[in-house]
Design a protein that fits this description.
By secondary structure, the protein is an alpha+beta fold. It has helices spanning 7-19, 25-32, 38-50; strands at 23-24, 54-58, 64-68, 81-86, 92-98, 114-118. 16% of the residues are buried.
């Protein structure tokens, strides 16, 4: 749920929902044009992460990408899945299978960032 819903937040959320893949802040900026400034987009994306609406992905190209969450909440994020970046078309996808990583006793996982790059089914 969006806290303090605004027109700008709604625009960004609708854009994320319709892409069906992870997008960068720069991609959102291009899509939204001059209607929303860069700093606002970045601030909204980070607040969406905190609220459990989207999750942030650090790609092998050093950029952050953002993907719409499915079945997550502010207190219960479940993102132990790999992400795939196509080297041809650039699309970044959340792969469907969750990964169960067994950590040594006493260790506690806070973040998982699994990333694979290669060629998607459309480009291979």
């Amino acid at each position: 749920m969006i806290k303090r819903n605004t027109k700008t937040k709604q625009l960004i959320l609708e854009s994320l929902k319709k892409t069906k893949s992870a997008v960068s802040q720069e991609t959102l900026q291009k899509e939204l044009g001059e209607s929303v400034d860069r700093a606002t987009i970045y601030r909204v994306l980070n607040s969406f992460c905190d609220d459990g609406i989207i999750h942030k992905i650090l790609s092998d190209d050093g950029k952050f990408y953002f993907a719409f969450c499915v079945n997550c909440s502010e207190k219960a994020h479940k993102h132990n899945h790999f992400h795939f970046r196509c080297l041809q078309c650039g699309k970044i996808e959340c792969l469907p299978n969750e990964v169960d990583i067994k950590l040594p006793q006493g260790y506690q996982s806070v973040n998982f960032n699994g990333f694979i790059s290669g060629y998607c089914s459309n480009c291979s």
